[in-house]
Amino acid sequence: MLNYVKQVLVVDLERKRISLTAKKTLLDSTLPILSKFEDVKVGLLAHAVVFKVFDKYLMVEFYNNLKAVIPAKEVRYAPPFENLVELMEPLFQRNTCQ
Questions:
Q1: Cβ atoms within 10 Å of 63's Cβ, excluding its own
Q2: Between the CA of residue 97 and those of 1, 56, 70, what are the distances in Å?
Q3: Segment 19-73, tens digit of pLDDT
Q4: What CA–CA distance (Å, rounded) separates 61 from 49?
Q5: What SS3 state is found at 63?
Q6: pTM for the full model?
Q7: I need a surface site. Which of 29, 37, 44, 94 has the fewest CB within 10 A?
Q8: Burial, 72: exposed, middle or buried (Cβ in 10 Å; 0-12, 13-18, 19+)?
Q9: Of 83, 32, 94, nearest in space to 61 by CA
């Protein structure tokens, strides 16, 4: 039997489902876990998973289905660009970001 370390991302009581992650970045993170809106503070740095890429912004998800929009100009490792989709899609679709 193989043992894997997993972390709970989402508990959906309605659908009786639990979503887990084995992403090393999330498991090893020392950053705070955001799982409810009340945890969010201006300037707070946390890991999230990119789940959708648009021309001008990214959609990211934290724990417990907490979602956020990141404008392209706020993506700190990207220079000014015209099309976020072309730049980000191959790199970050369903990957962890900070």
A1: 22
A2: 31, 17, 11
A3: 888 888 888 889 999 999 999 999 888 988 888 888 788 888 999 999 999 887 7
A4: 5
A5: helix
A6: 0.69
A7: 37
A8: buried
A9: 94
